[in-house]
Amino acid sequence: MSFDVNFQAGLVFAVIVAFTVGLSFYLGRQAKSASGFFAAGGGIPWFVNGVAFAGDYLSAASFLGICGMIAFYGYDGFLYSIGYLAGWVVALFVIAEPLKRLGRYTFADALDSKFQSRGIKFAAAISTLAVSLFYLIPQMVGAGALMRPLFGQPHFVGVITVGVIVIFIVVTAGMVSTTYVQFFKGGLLVIFSALLVVLILLRGLSSSDPSNDSPLVGPIAEGDMSVPPGYRRLAEDPAWEAAKQDYERFLELMTSRVLTTIRVPNWRESYAGQTQPSQYRLLCQTVTTTPQGEKIYAGAVPPDADASAGLLPVGRAFSVPSEAESAQGPIGYLGAVADSTFELWRKEPLPILEGNGDSTVVYYPQPTSGEQVLTPGNYFSGMRSANPWDRLNFVSLMLALFCGTASLPHILIRYYTVKDESAARKSTIVGIGSIGLFYVLTLYMGLGAMTSGAIDVTDSNMAAPLLAKSFSPWLFAAISAIAFTTVLGTVSGLIIAASGAVVHDLIGSVAKVQMSDHGKVRVARLASVVVGAVAIVLGILFQKMNVTYLVGWAFSVAASANLPALIMLLFWKRTTKQGIAAAVLVGMISSLAWILLAGDTYKDVYGWKPEDSIIPFSQPGIVTIPLGFLTLIVVSLLTPKPQPLPPEGKPVLR
Amino acid sequence: MTLLLVSRIVLPAARLVSRSLRRALFLSLPGILMVGLDHGPASSGKQDSPEVAARNARIGLVLFFIYVALYAGFVACAVAGTLSMPIGGTNLAVWYGFGLIAAAFVLALVYGVLCRSRTTDRTEDAK
Asked: ipTM of this predicted complex?
């Protein structure tokens, strides 16, 4: 899709981002000590910390990924909203207060507070690094998705821009500035999302005729698609037949464009009444990649190979009850959605064609009833499968989302930025309120994007900003800027957590390198640059994946590696240091290995057949989280009981 | 003793209060957001007494298991395919989903109300 670059919108975006970064610098001047850099000296007010929780947590995955997934798959994206919020229950009721009593700067500090073990420090630091990096990938991918519609710049420009700004912020600031930036932007994100939902409800639903932007073909005889005037039907190709799809291809004589369509089930029934009898619209869109890497969109070569200029914006309802075409209340809107029919876009990769090495992906609309849109199973299709493994995949994801929040290092570190347990509790309640409100809004934003007529079929992550653009370029600029600063803030928090793991745990505790306070901050900043650079590279590599799906993986790794150790440390006195270290390493390695060998990774990352995967389902949580608990219990029972700490070793709040 | 108390606790606390307020004022462009909120001393020398902490933990676990039951019910309904059941103009999936989000907030508030916060000075504990 091509995007008009709007100068004023770019200016609004630049002003908001500059203000945020300026704020960060102003506040960052106060972070002179290690305590100030990593934990804001324990001096953040609880309300500010609570909203900052929302700022940290409502990352690119929540705003861009969930909205995009709902816009493309309906209710399945909302499952992430439910799971992400449910995880806060674990954080508040089980983890928050005991954790606040245990630690100092990092997750490893908390785990190690009773044992003073280098093994625990090492395992926890490696786990923190792994989870932070996994969580960084979707943030960087989200940044790239924002830059395309706003400035017309390719994906990698957005990723590098975010990477550079964040490294700059973290190197010059620390936890104080990160917290206040998160507070500012977490609040704005919820407010502007609410505004967007109000506009969606006021617009209501409307059905639109696709004839405005799609070529007409037909009349079509039953069982065949005849050649429309101005087109020549292309000869069948064995490679097309190998795809076992009902393809039709036409050459447009005037422009030499090749138009491709797939006849999907329900095609005729769903479109009946939209056009003249036995005439149908050619609604498929194609992206062809030549052996030289050139992209050809819908058969045309755009001037800028990265801008998908030939693709049409999509997203519409085909049939809507007449009463739904006016402003709706929140409940009435969902009722209207249930009674409507929508187009959800699917893609079909084709085998290599024409003998010239080109490969094509065809995007085609699938008419879907509103009832089905509001029921899970469009993305996690295994939920409707008779195969129990497929259903287990969904259960495993929900378990990982539930357990993952309380295991995320950049969320855990925020418990150290308030003064005591009471403040930790209150800030978590404020966080749950803000985050819960936002997640309710995601369902409306996703459904609004689904019918906005502005979606780019190739990138679900852009659905929310493009929805805002369908209302006003100003709103689009503001929303994009907030989302961009969201990415900045989350990435900052993650990089601080990762650099803390390197400096405190790996260098300070494991390698026993003595450093001054000032030296620690300097090394932490160097580590931030390295972690940021790695994140930039990964953000470019994972461009095409939905960001919330990627975050689901990060949750699985975090829950498998960190949660068993945290829970057992807090609630089982027989836990030993060997048990903790083993549980963290086994949970992390097993979940990472599971993800790397899963069918979804085969398909989306390696480009291999998912059926070849040796793993029965893609989400690891249901296996690797219990495995972490089991490892901890077995190893603890096999190792000597922990001795009561001498009085001088009594854990104190440092 | 009084001098020690003033120099170790009161003065640092006053400085932190002042700094917190300045930061909050700078940030709270919509200033109402911050009105009436606790920007109290950011001292890190206090913690809940063990009895209070144990009581809070018990309450937390009870509320946690209530939520686990609700969440597990949702996942079970999804697997069983009953979430598509029409109800209240839309379907069970929408209402149950919203209900889980609302329940998290309501239980969090209940927890906030039921929990006590009686702090003891950790430096006293250490002696």
From this structure: 0.81
